[in-house]
Each structure stands twice: as structure tokens, then as C-alpha cells.
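thoughts on my protein:
***
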Amino acid sequence: MTYSILNTTSSNALKFIEKYHKSKADKTILLIIGDCMIDYRGRARSFLDWGERIIIIKQDGSVLVHQPIMREPVNWQPSGSKTDFSVKDELLILRSHHTRPPEKMKTTFRAIKLVAASKLYDKAKLLISGMETDVVNEIISNPEAIEDGLRISKREKHVKSGMIDLFGYDCNHIPVVIEVKRSLATISAVQQLRMYVNDIKKDVDTAIVRGILCAPRIPDMVKKLLNDYDLEWKEVERQIVLPDDYQKTLKEFSKQ
């Protein structure tokens, strides 16, 4: 079932959230559209002034803040976050917090256009095909394109937070987690890689686990965040089929 209310007050929105979402947050997804302000404190400090946005709180606790344009969220909280709801001075306030690493995001609504809650069921697994799979296959067949001595031991390794593209060991027998992206690397890809590395650290005897993000292009802000998390990157081109059916290899592209 899906429940919703339109153009409501903060008090009514809070009652709706308490009735349809708060007591079963791990089983319902919450959507709020309205005029809000975002204050984030964590890896850095950011402030987003009033504007009409979409806030999505997913069943795993992750929180996404979307503006009317662009694909990526302008603010977010990772999986495992907890969100508290309250009303103060006729404003609806969402306080989302994450423990490790410590992050806090306060969302304040002064006007609410829509609040919706729904149960979503999705057990399907993402099947990767096309160019991204080609890059994964190239790394498996030629791991030295990433670095000398790298050995790939498993493809699509399941961990608590998802599925690792490639898992292996470097020349010093240190576990290596490799996340492959077919296009521009984003901050969300860094968070994904970080969660995979943390999952592996819980399963191995050594606390040292390397994480490498592979993508055709990695922006400087993404590289900086990778550095902050002690993660690594490798800019690699995806495989391209030329008119004469000759396929340039990952190693050839990485040398350019």
C-alpha cells in the first residue's frame, strides 16, 4: 500500500510520518517534497539555503536530497543512518545521523507539497552487461593493467553491503577490493567502495584492506574523498569496438 498527503502543515506531516513510517522505518520508504534548508556536518561542513527539493528516506536508512535538476543527490546520508522527526515553530525538522563515520544532516521544511510512504519489494539482482562488464573482463584477463603483481581471486563477491565487482590480492598478499564504473566516477561510488572495504576488514585477519576505484574519468573532488578514506583509484578507459572489429585493450588505454 502507498499513502500520501498533499500541501499539508508540518504538524499533519509529522502525524502522517509517525503513523505510516516511523514505527516501521526499515519496511517503508518515505518521500517528502517541499521547501527546505539543509545543514550537514561530517566529512566536511555544508549549508544549502531554502529551495524546493525531494527528500527520500530509504528502507536501509539512507537519505537522499535531490534538487529539481541533475542526477546525483546534492546531499545524502549513507545506509544505516537514523532519522528523527519533530516540529518546532511550525517547521518540520528531520535530523539524520550516522555513527561511523560520524555525520549529521538537519533538514528543515517551511512548506510541504507532498509526503508519501510506501512498502517496496525488490529482490532482483543487478546484472551488469555492456561496457562495464568488458572492463571487468579485461581486468580479470590482465590484472597487471591495474598494477604489477595483482591477482584476481573472485568476481562478484557478496558482502554485507552489496556485491564487489572484483576481489583479489596484491604482490604483498594484501586483500584488494576493486569497484568498476563505466563512466564518470561519483562520490556515491566512493561510499560504495568504502562500505565494501569495511565489510572485508571484518572478515579477514588483517586490518589492512586496499580499495581501488576504476573508471574512465575520476574528478578531483572524488580523488580527494578517496584520499580521505585511504582508498585508491585508477583511471581506465572502457573497451571500445572499432570498425575493423579490433578491440583496444585496457592496458593500451591505461598507457595513453
User: Anything to note?
Assistant: Residues 2-118 form a domain with the Protein Yojf; Chain: A; fold (CATH 2.70.180.20). Residues 187-203 form the longest helix (17 residues).
